[in-house]
Fold each of these.
Amino acid sequence: MSDEQNSVSDLLEDNQYKYGFTTDVESDTFAKGLNEDVVRAISKKKNEPEFMLNFRLKAYAKWKTMKEPAWPNVHYPSIDFQDISYYSAPKKKKVLESLDEVDPEVMRTFEKLGIPLDEQKKLANVAVDAVFDSVSVATTHKKKLMEQGIIFCPISEALQDYPELVEEYLGTVVPVGDNYYAALNSAVFTDGSFVYIPPDTISPMEISTYFRINTEETGQFERTLIICAENSYVSYLEGCTAPQFDTNQLHAAVVELVTMDNAEIKYSTVQNWYAGDKETGKGGIYNFVTKRGKCAGENSKISWTQVETGSAITWKYPSCILQGDNSSGEFYSVALTNGHMQADTGTKMIHIGKNTRSSIISKGISADQSSNSYRGQVKIGKNATNARNYSQCDSMLVGDKSSAHTFPYIETANSSVQVEHEAATSKISEDQLFYFESRGISRENAIEAVISGFCKDVFKQLPMEFAVEAQKLLTLKLEDSVG
Amino acid sequence: MSDTLEKLTEETAFLDLHKNFVEENKPNSALSAIHESALSRFEVLGFPHSKHEMYTYVNTKKLAATAFAVSSPSEKIDLIDKHIYSGCENSCLVFVNGVLDQTLSRLQAIESSVKISSLEEKDDVDTLLVSLENENDVFACLANAFCADVTVVEIPDKGQVAVPIQVLFVSTGDTSRPEMHSPRLLWKVGKLAEVKVIEKFVGMQEGYFTNMVQDWKVAEGAGVILTQVQSDPFGAWNFQKTRVHIKRNARFHSANASSGSVLVHNHFEVRLEEEGAEVILNGVSVLKGKEQVHNFIRIHHEAPQCISHQHFKNVINDEGRSSFDGTVIVNQGAQLTNANQLINNLMLSDDCHADNKPNLMIFADDVKCAHGATIGQIDEEQLFYLQTRGLSKKFAKELLTRSFAESIVQTIQFPEVVKELNNTLLKKLEVENV
């Protein structure tokens, strides 16, 4: 293994921490601990309408009665929920003068991923000059969206400006007591995104969290609510391929999607959070996310695409409740684990309406000493006549200490359904790479070819620029592990 | 609070029952040790709740709440002849209410090649005790606690058993007060030995709970062909746990045909312990009315180059319920594993349920593992094709469902059993009004 390759893995690790994203502890950061007063204080601080306070209190009461789930196939030391500060003003990162100050290895990642120069600056937290001010870009986008009547703003803003919309939909897909982390999120979330697409509107652009202003640090309990009214369409992008660091170890986000008749939401995620020390696995982010969409209307569609490459522990099941007749749900996922990462991810497709259909394509890549589990549920209710499901979950193992697991749950209570599930396991082997190399193709390109072939079905669902970056990211992450 | 109390009473009822059982049976010290160990495990595990991973799809509440009596072993019964397959007339072991009946069993054909005894050897006792320590199935614990005897069947090294051995489990049943009994077997198949076994479960009337546990120790190079036929009446519970340990280059091929009852639960735990071990598990069930069959399978690939194949098919009609929960675990270092798992369900009514959980847990990178699960109905095109050939719709459906189930039945190596299943299990598909 060349030095060059070794250094690649390093750059994705604590090198960046040398630059210390220092947190200025400001006076309005709450003391650690969680109780009802804290929940009330958060609501007050955000000047929220009363229904919101009740929502939070209900969630908190539920949370107190619940236990941390023990069923996921992941292991970690127990979390002390009283050792977390549940409200702090946006944290400031150290601003660098120019790109020259950025760790050259980080720069190399950016180059490899093909991130444009201005974006690189933003990601590396370099002061951005006026021409490329992201705020102005975001404002332009926002204006364009507003022209069509599309609301896109932080959820705290939406609570002030459109409380009736939030009240109508918040918690309808993920109820306050849905699961331990969702309940915690419902009680203490501080911000997130809110999107409303009015009827008969096709969003003129892909909406991305990147455009959102004033939300560099949304905190560890993010809440997203997207509502797509009749005959509308939106594609929403979350995250980015560049390594992301955060001072909070626990992340418990909740995402709710609602589609009305003939509406469609396409939700794409690329996640590359800090995965912890490569040798010991310590210090990585715990990503415990509840994502769920409800196809409330007829002929509606929700499509989840995710590329998960970071976090020490990922616990995430983007799901679809197919309530409206003829509605459809899709789930495309690539989950890569390396080092000591653990991922337990998959989906739930709950078929309620007639002629509902869903498809699941999940690709798990597990390298080094990591563990990668697919856990998916396909549940077909008694009234879901002619429901269809196709699931495919493939695993690729890289290295003999890694592990791959599949836990599908298929439950049917209707005879007119057709459900298919298949899974297979394969490996990326020295032989395959040798063959490529003997044909004059570099090792790097060889890995890329194997990975892109394996993940093709998922990548083709991603928006173009995301797909290119995602593929490069996977190659980069695996360079060290193969051979 | 009331929940806890209720739960406590359910388990205490069984503990009290065990006291009576011990008084009546007066087990020897070896058996007592097993009972004790099993009971303490039972107390730790407790009856499963609805979220229990092993019993996610199996509702055992009613079973746990039933007040059972311990079956008395001495009852005499006739009419067992019709359940003995031809070819096994002189090689059958008959268990009446969980206990081997010496007078009814006929062993002339196998006396010389098979040794049948009660549990005596210290090694065997230890084996059973060790397996109990890690027992996670609460009903298997219960079976160990309530076994009146452990029958040890030993096939010596290089032993070739010329005729198939039939093991017939007869339950007398009691409709007024359900009885419970626990046949317990230990099979020891010596090196390079070959044996074929047919196990059949029947009942004289409803009202019993057969809770069987058997251990198979398959030594190097040995071959076992096991066929299980479950044909209990509807009002009977049938639980069985089959634990199999397979050594180097040994084979264990099994086929299970279940016709279902109020609750049938088959639990297979197979350990491929040395290189080249091979296991095949096939299963078929045809369910009607409110019949249920649940399969729970764990296959552990502990050594490299082992093979496992599973193929299960269920035909479910009316309010039938079937579930399959199978996991293949490939340990670290078990390279060149070849594991397959396929589950096909045919659902014929809107009130039936089919739940599947085919799991893979893989800790080695050079393996070939695949699983598949399908749930569907009769293919409209196939049906149409047969109708264009002049077959009535009803007959066409019957033909298609029958052939669906038959593909597993035909893997059974005993013509007598196949013939019987054609007239019993597959007959169930004929009368139905599809």
Note: Chain A has one domain: 3-95+133-478.
Amino acid sequence: MLRDDATVEALQNASHMAEVRGRSLWADARARFFRNKAAVGGFVLLMMIAAFALFGGLLSEWEPDFVDFSLMGANASEGVPSFETGHYFGTDSSGRDLYARVVQGTGISLMVGVVGAVVAVIVGTLYGAIAGYFGGRVDGTMMRAVDILMSIPFMFVLILMLVIFGRSIFMLFLGIGLISWLDMARIARGQTLTIKNKEFVEVAVATGVHPLRIILRHIVPNLLGIVIVYATLLVPNMIIFESFISFLGLGVQEPNTSLGALISEGASQMQYGVLWQLFFPLLFFVFTIFAFFFVGDGLRDALDPKDR
Amino acid sequence: MLSFIARRLTVAIPTLLILVVLSFVLMYTAPGGPFNSERPLPPEVLANIEAKYGLDQPFWKRIAVYIHGVIFNFDFGPSFQFKNRSVNDIIAQGFPITLTYGFWSFVVAVTVGVSLGIAAALRQNTWLDYLAVGISIGAQVLPNFVMAPILLLVFTLWLGWLPGGGWAGGQWQYLVMPVIALSTSYMASIARITRSSMLEVLNTNFIRTAKAKGLPTRRIIWRHAMKPAMLPVLSYLGPAFVGMITGSVIIDIFFSTGGIGQFFVNSAFNRDYSVIMGITILVGALTILFNLIVDLLYAWIDPKIRY
């Protein structure tokens, strides 16, 4: 009897479970992501930084390009961060409000990262999917080209380009776009190789669907998980990359600024005892990178459970 | 093995050629020559100077002369900025310095990173593991251009322990900060990669067999787990090498070490194209050579790779 009771109970449980709605892959991933405290923390931090970049300017009492000549040269003593003067983060060596500058710099750095990631997602995914799907000689040639591009020291070539064609945001975006998709193409290709032998692709081939349509409708959607993960992890790398170039003075030009340019300026001022000019840009830089890494790691654990 | 090397070289050499041609074409299309300054030179003088540097020749002749010089004589031509120096002189002056601190940074990044990673993997979920993971996450957001000012601030301005810059023939005081600044973020990545691949290897069947046979832990780690666990680390060394060479630009700016990075940026601002090209090609050649060595090591360590 006892055993029967247990069986009945188990059956009841089972029938109860059957009523639970099936969870999609994405719902599953979302649940996994939100269980990960570090990832959620990173996500919240990222939202706050994005809000800061978008709406932080509204709180600012000064324009980013307003030069207060009375503060010029007296930055170390007069430009100290304070709420009374409205310079929350202090001023920089030319008497500009650092808060407004950091808002502007954070925005541009985020934009650079996002543009790099978008190019990587579009170009890299399509390139990799096409190479992987067609295979054979097409694959060999396309991937050999990626190999060759990857072994070129791009930072140096980009600097050469910036010197020759002049420094502008456009050149910077072009340079970042040129390199960002390479890794993504490799990842997408590898994933396509495993997907293209699945039954649903065979069915599509058998029913005579056009190859490009198969790639766009059947393969690319199945790549999305891994693509999103690597795009998120690519953003901080692009931000570091841009900051590096701007740090050298070759990237974003005045009156625009980015976190790298601000860090560079701050580093040159610290010997005069002006630490806030290094501290605030650095803080936002580090937080942004941290947040992206945590969100990326969380997404990887959520969407790509094999790879930990 | 020989055919593997040969096949890799068939990729490496065209890559290098593409790099040479690409940078030459970029330089050729540059608007304005290196001698177009704010105070325009008299046309005769300009013509004389251009003739001296061969700038009056047609494109094909110039590129042929350049490539010939690079390949057969390792000659990158004269510098446009420094009248009596060739690009080779500049490289000969700066490169040994870059090589010295680059080498030590590489050694530090690999040894510290690998030991930290292995220690964390062996003591998984203890304070040591958390410490190692914490360090590697923290160090990842500190690229060299962030590390360098922080180090300068702490060790030179506040503590006054280390000189703020210079080279002085490579004495250790002058090496400490460049090496730390350059190696930190790579150390962190290597530690992370080592930890996760070691954890993976320690869960495989052949390690379980080794444990079941009663082998001492030390022997299991060094003889059995080490080799497969090092494969992902090895494939990271290529990008790390490129990153460190690029980072040397920052190191030279911050610590006035006088390596090629300093000349590179200096030439970038002075439009000294021949120096920029020479250094770009040198770095490209080094990268390709280094990737080749990593590939060979990979094939040697990983028995699954057929070459």
Note: The CA atoms of residues 42 and 48 of chain B lie 10 Å apart.
Amino acid sequence: MPKDYGIGASSKRREDVRFLTGRGQYTDDLSIHGQAHAVMVRSNVAHGKIVSIDTSAAAAMPGVLAVFTGEDFKDVGGNPAGWLIKSRNGEPMREPKRPVLAHGKVRHVGDAYAAVIAETYEQAKAAAQQIADDAVIDELPAIIDMKAAAADASNRVHDEIPDNICFDWGWIEDNRAAVDAVFKSAPHITTLELVNNRLVPNAMEPRASIGEYFPGTGDYKLTTTSQNPHLTRLLVAAFVMGIPENKLTVVAPDVGGGFGSKIYHYGEEALVLAAAKKLGRAVRWTAERSESFLSDAHGRDHVTKIELACEKDGTFLAFRTETYANVGAYLSNFSTATPTFLHGTLMAGPYKVPHVYVNVKTIFTNTAPVDAYRGAGRPEATFSLERVIDKMCRELGLDQFEVRRKNFITPDMFPYTTPVGLAYDTGNYQATLAKAIEMADVAGFDKRAAASKAKGRLRGMGLSTWIEACGIAPSHLVGVLGSRVGLYDAATVRVNATGNISVMVGAHSHGQGHETVFPQIVAERLGVPESSVEIVHGDTSKIPFGMGSYGSRSLAVCGVAMNKAIDKIVAKGKKIAAHMLEASEGDITFEDGKFSVAGTDKAKTFGEIAFSAYVPHNYPLETLEPGLEETAFYDPANFTYPAGAYICEVELDPDTGKVDVVAFHCADDFGNIMNPMIVEGQVHGGVGQGIGQALLENTTYDENGQLLTGSFMDYAMPRASDVPFYNVDYSCQTPCTHNPLGVKGCGEAGAIGSPPAVVNAVIDALHRGGMTHVTHINMPVSPGRVWQAING
Amino acid sequence: MQLSDSRDIKAAPLAVWQAILNPDVLKECIPGCESLTGSVADGFEAAVVQKVGPVKARFTGVVTFSDIIEGKSLTISGEGKGGPAGFAKGGAKVALEPIPEGTRLTYEVDASVGGKIAQLGSRIIDGFAKKLADDFFARFQQTVEGPAPEEVVEVTSDEGEPAEEETKKGWFKRLIGG
């Protein structure tokens, strides 16, 4: 029987009660006495010289309290990039200043160059329009195409960067010659040029920020839609505004989805703080959906050429890739890590390929900044690998399953060091592949294909065997790779006098279900009901300094920090029990919520210990402190490496090119599972986003840099009817070897593993239908593109 | 976005040429034009109301003429700011050549939009622009040629206001003494 509480139980998500009944408290729900409204003035052109911004008419309009332009922030710091990447020639990346408001030039449609604060939103909006009408911005030619941008020194996104290249990175540069040599003598080479399409994150809740300033104390408060309030505080305090950290509280209350886009610090956050100080009033800003499309950090946007060198029997010899990665107009906080260390280091996949070389050129363009979006770099790596492998199998007439099996790292080879610098601690790729084949009833495929054919439709099956590095943390590793911050996490477990427990965590929950899962672990470890454990997150004045939630790290990093804090609680509880039971500390055991003297029936319940900790009338004060509260910081030894096998089946209408995903099977290895229901939900969401990328979503800028897909009318999000009911399995478990919970993380897996499975299935359907001339279709594989591929 | 087409107009090239440079004619022919003032030398100030898909806006801007080869060809350029809707700008190269029936007017339009119109209306902007150009040149043709007799009859019977017939009929021809 499945467990009904604690680790491994499918406890219902307690946060859903408030989310589903409209009782969530999002940033925009807050109403603060005396608040004023901010509206940003955003550029309508992709690239332009700011000649003048005449704000006088706007400033005189009804209700207008203040107007800001880039000039007001020219002396404060820029919003920095979190990772310093070096080019192949050893030079550090080019790092232009990213100001709070554009100054001198506007660099993408939606780039904010002024802001209005007014009594009401409508007044602010009207005055913002007045500024837009009065500003003189000379449009310059837009820089949109990456390769053209790199080739043309005469037109520059940033005047000081001559070729629009941020860096030209080689991974691992020392291996380049050896990889090239393999390609010179390889019996077979498969080459594929592909595009990893640009995506708009489209969190359900748009970004919003409220700044407050308290003149009595000089304290600031920022309430904002953030996945990591401490990181935002650090960036605002230390880099941009120069506010002492202890004078700035950052609160990220309920946040309606992030998918990466809310990791980063954005200029609006600094703006509302500066405005609040100037006016002595709370200043609020909430993005319109159009602003989200224009100014949230986008995802993906790679143009890649990948080559696979192999034996005629499909044994991999080497992978070589050249990628152009779009960073947009400015460097967002993680934008330099995403196409490099979250991408290049994964280019060996789960395979024992001896040689890999990755070249990534990141290019500035007059488009919105591009940064990590669910999966971040790993979907790009997986898509390139799994697509080129599929193409190779077709070229050589090899079985796709057999080729994977032949090249997988085998379970006896762990820990396994890849040629791209990672050390996989554990895994069993054969097991997840076998499971997926069983789940998908691969043996019965021909029968299903025949049934589809009878309906006039083509059926195809696509495979993707993916791996990721997540639990984004190890400070020593990310430090070597260029990160300017350490990436540990922290938790405080506070046992209250009456025995209930508050856990303050550095991770932030914006849909993941931390408020449910973390108490399951506490309940299991301390033998208390889940309902007596409360998770506190998102408020820097309450929680220890943690690095937030992204990179499937919450459980594998912060959850383990919490587990460490629980260890300390148990140790402290034993001390208290030893005192109360007049026994030696070494004789106390803790089991099922009871502290006992080994070999006797003398025991104290957890609740009695907790109460005693706060009513310590007779404690030996030199050896036993009152209270029962412990904090732990945890910095893991390595990334975690979830992996799995996905099989997608599609039906394709050859007359219209329409693709329907009719079945999707996921066999994942996430290590130990804390809450199966939540794991399934994460996989569903991730695969849904992956199908969205594969079939529907695309971000299009025209040659002038105008965003043509600026609303849900033109940007196709997946709907319920676009996805099948997923078949999810997580029974293949190789627990992570370097964290005590044995967990790996599951948040991004679906978005990483699924796009190549979908596209491989489409190509398979076309080949089975005799259209073997189609070797690749770029995502999104829309009906139009399929029809064109079919009809040449 | 680019589009090109040609129209045969039953009027002499000189009459067509004068019509193109006449602000009253342009005001009559530009769909949604509220006002148009100025001169060929200094450019025209124009205000035009348009609805592109979900975005309705009043564009104000300047229309200028360049590359003028008297009686033969010219380039009309315009840029309009549409407030919250964004902007539209573009140009039309217009060339006239005499044909037995009158004048062949050839045009190549190159237009672009920015801001909200681009974000919300991109799906329909090409079709919209084509329709706009078609409307303009159809009205232009009608203005220069004067309405066909049967159309006048139709208008008369529909509206029941025969007094309008006189004003509709080739007012531009009368204006330029044609």
Note: Confidence is low (pLDDT under 50) at residues 151-167 of chain B.
